[in-house]
UniProtKB/TrEMBL annotation:
Keyword Repeat in annotation: yes
Repeat positions for PPR: 84-118, 185-215, 216-250, 317-351
Protein name, per record: Pentatricopeptide repeat-containing protein
GO biological process: RNA modification
PANTHER family: PENTATRICOPEPTIDE REPEAT-CONTAINING PROTEIN
Superkingdom of the source species: Eukaryota
Entry's family note: Belongs to the PPR family. PCMP-H subfamily.
Keywords: Repeat, Transit peptide
Length: 624
């Protein structure tokens, strides 16, 4: 009713007796009358009130004032305008924006004549409510009644299909768009490629994109996001390069998506280039772009750079707080992670399930059992969050690191979820560190069932037996491995030099600089052995004789990657290595000695975590 006041309907032209108005409208009119000091009875012609009612409906829609909107609706009925098409369309829009979809539908159903706007507005309301099924029903009804449609209509229905991952319906709509010659409409085509991308059909999405005569920035960003959502990160980066050549302006959605692709690949060079674009285009203030940058640098082991981005973010939401806490935990900075967890709450943000996974992981890095238990209980009691399988997995890590492998085993057996291979793998690794053979056998038995093709579990159990000099069990475990079909995934490491990624396998022969690498590595090993480094053949998992084991051990992939980086990178640059498996004990020892001898910072990202080697020590604290 504020709109009625603004429109100054209390003029000599308005005649509506105030006692007949609804209670809300009556109070509003009465106050306005007192302010304007009108003592006369308002009079006007009925035809002149309609514009004011329209203004009132628009104000209610703008303010999301459902109660006032219903009051105005009652006046529309009173004055007999409920059959007016423009008025009813505005009412549908008002109820939709107020979230009262049932009222919007009631107005729609009672309309004697519906226009395209009526259908599109109601469909949009159901799309916002994520009721894709009702959108499809309305579209079918619309076709049966012979109502004219537009590209906006079809693109809206496609958006509903995307939300429901409705592949069949999407293909039917694609055929429909071709039939009615809407395939060249940029909004329809963009919606089509978006739904295909969300359904995992990137080849179909690309075909739609490639056939489009006209594209906008939303089209390009939808394709980049589609590649990222489907974990096609290299394709996303290549597509982004194509976008740059096309001259299309960047938007925050494209930049956030491509930064996520760089983060997933730990492609620091490309990530730095995109960060430069972010600075140039001014999107650094966008909280989602900033969150992606924090995640990028944290995943690349550049935790200090990640914190700089976080600190400079003008606006912070729960996502960027979670990204930073997770980054600290991933990079073995547990104290910073826990401190930031407390700061997050002081800033007025409630921790989420993701937050607790990060902070529990931080506790695992330091073996803080009591602190981990406090956080685990706190998420239920203070924040009403139910622990999921990831939280239980973190607790298993915490207990195992502290040597409480029996308690870790009991936690797995009594939790309300089926145990994952990573949980039993964590227990088995803890048994190796703390020498608990009995629990190791239980964990290994579960792992043989859950991961029958993973030879690493057999070898780890064999090494545990060997540490206790149980040679008979070592022999039987090795025989079981040989008789099974289990195969160890071949380890590989890669390092980026300038704009090229160099990959190394154990005993690498194909790299063009491999001869120089082997020569430099041999020199390095001689220097390291003088300081006490000795290769440990038990860490080589190949089924070959002892001398061959020592040869392969010297030429593990991460050692080759490190040596190549030492040869090619500037003397003050950190050496960053990625590995597809867990770093072995011998290579871990090698990296510590190498960091001390060369004075270089070495960052190794293996399948479990980051290892930051500096001056002969590792951030993992000898637990990984």
């Amino acid at each position: 009713m504020k709109a009625l006041r603004r429109c100054k309907i209390f003029s000599p032209y308005f005649y509506a007796h105030r006692r007949n108005l609804s209670s809300v409208a009556d109070v509003t009119l009465q106050k306005a009358a007192e302010e304007e000091e009108f003592d006369n009875v308002w009079k006007c012609k009925d035809t002149n009130i309609l514009p004011f009612l329209h203004r009132a409906v628009q104000e209610c829609a703008k303010d999301r004032a459902a109660m006032n909107g219903k009051s105005v609706h009652s006046q529309i009925i009173k004055f007999g305008y409920e059959a007016d098409t423009l008025t009813t369309n505005m009412l549908i829009n008002m109820y939709s924006k107020c979230g009262s979809v049932d009222f919007a539908r009631k107005v729609f159903d009672e309309m004697p004549h519906r226009t395209l706007v009526s259908w599109n507005t109601l469909m949009g309301s159901y799309i916002q409510k994520k009721d894709g099924e009702e959108v499809l029903h309305l579209f079918v009804q619309m076709q049966r009644e012979g109502t004219q449609f537009s590209g906006f209509t079809v693109s809206g229905v496609l958006c509903a299909c995307a939300a429901k991952f409705a592949v069949l319906e999407s293909k039917q709509l694609h055929a429909f768009a071709l039939k009615v010659s809407l395939e060249s409409n940029v909004y329809v085509s963009t919606a089509l490629l978006d739904v295909y991308a969300k359904c995992g059909l990137m080849n179909d999405a690309f075909r739609v994109f490639d056939s489009m005569p006209e594209r906008n920035d939303v089209t390009w960003s939808s394709m980049v996001a589609g590649y990222v959502q489907n974990e096609l990160y290299e394709e996303a980066i290549m597509f982004f390069h194509r976008l740059q050549k096309s001259g299309v302006e960047h938007n925050q959605f494209t930049l956030s998506s491509i930064i996520s692709a760089c983060a997933a690949l730990a492609a620091l060079l490309e990530g730095n280039q995109v960060h430069a674009i972010v600075r140039k285009t001014g999107f650094g203030a966008n909280v989602y772009v900033a969150s992606s940058l924090v995640d990028l640098y944290a995943r690349c082991g550049c935790i200090d750079e990640a914190y700089i981005v976080f600190s400079n973010a003008e606006v912070k939401n729960a996502v960027i707080w979670n990204s930073m806490i997770s980054g600290f935990a991933r990079n073995a900075r547990p104290l910073e992670a826990m401190t930031l967890f407390e700061k997050m709450q002081l800033a007025g943000f409630y921790p989420t399930e993701v937050t607790y996974v990060s902070v529990l992981s931080a506790c695992g890095h330091m073996g803080l059992v009591d602190k981990g238990r406090i956080y685990f209980d706190k998420m239920k009691k203070e924040h009403n969050l139910s622990p999921n399988v990831y939280h239980y997995s973190c607790m298993v890590d915490i207990l195992g690191r502290k040597g409480l492998v029996e308690e870790a085993k009991d936690l797995i057996e009594n939790m309300p979820f089926a145990a994952t291979p990573s949980m039993w793998g964590s227990v088995l690794a803890s048994c190796r560190v703390h020498g608990n053979v009995e629990v190791a056998e239980i964990a290994a038995k579960h792992l043989f069932e859950l991961e029958p093709n993973n030879a690493g579990n057999h070898v780890l159990l064999s090494n545990i037996y060997a540490s206790k000099r149980r040679w008979g069990d070592v022999a039987s475990t090795r025989k079981l491995l040989k008789d099974s079909e289990a195969k160890k995934e071949r380890g590989k490491s890669w390092i980026q030099i300038k704009d090229k990624v160099h990959t190394f396998m154990v005993g690498e022969r194909n790299h063009p600089s491999i001869a120089e690498v082997y020569s430099r590595l041999d020199e390095l090993l001689v220097d390291m052995e003088k300081l006490g480094y000795k290769g440990k053949a038990e860490h080589d998992l190949h089924d070959v004789d002892e001398s061959r084991k020592h040869e392969l051990l010297r030429h593990h992939s991460e050692k080759l990657a490190f040596t190549f980086g030492l040869m090619c990178l500037p003397s003050n640059a950190p050496i960053r290595i990625m590995k597809n498996l867990r770093i072995c004990g011998d290579c871990h020892s090698f990296m510590k000695f190498a960091s001390k001898i060369t004075g270089r910072e070495i960052v190794v990202r293996d399948v479990n975590r980051f290892h930051h080697f500096t001056n002969g020590s590792c951030s993992c604290g000898e637990f990984w």
